[in-house]
Specification:
With 133 residues, the chain is an alpha+beta fold. The protein is built from four helices and five strands. The longest helix is centred in the middle third of the chain and has 21 residues.
Length: 133
């Protein structure tokens, strides 16, 4: 019950300050924790998935190069494919100010340009400093 109340206060706080205005907020009732906003992006199956095997190799090589380049900027902080994800092929998490900025960055990915992937992006909040083990 307490966690639900804290979540409700947090969501009210985010709504009151405007999600686009601030990317970090303190968790109400806990002066040590800060939530930070990222852009979470699904790469979904696109409509064009009929490329021949040689073209697929080029698309995948370009896709991996593109991800590596975005990671070097520090603006794309996590990326990876799903195992048995169905239409969901992978995720990207961006440390940028806006969804449109993340979409601009990923829109030059050969997988997106070829039509193999489609982007679906939204804001995602997590505790600042969170990391995978």
């Amino acid at each position: 019950m307490r966690n639900s109340f804290i979540l409700l206060i947090f969501l009210s706080l985010v709504a009151s300050i405007g999600a686009n205005a601030q990317r970090e907020v303190k968790i109400p009732g806990d002066s040590t924790k800060v939530l930070k906003r990222y852009v979470f992006m699904f790469l979904n199956e696109g409509l064009k998935r009929d490329q021949d095997s040689a073209t697929l190799v080029r698309i995948q090589e370009g896709h991996m190069k593109h991800i590596g380049e975005m990671a070097q900027t520090g603006q794309m902080v996590v990326a990876g494919p799903f195992e048995d994800g169905g239409k969901y092929r992978g995720i990207l998490i961006f440390d940028v100010d806006s969804i449109s900025q993340a979409i601009r960055m990923e829109s030059t990915d050969p997988g997106v340009l070829s039509g193999r992937f489609e982007m679906q992006a939204f804001f995602w909040w997590t505790t600042k400093g969170s990391k995978l083990p």
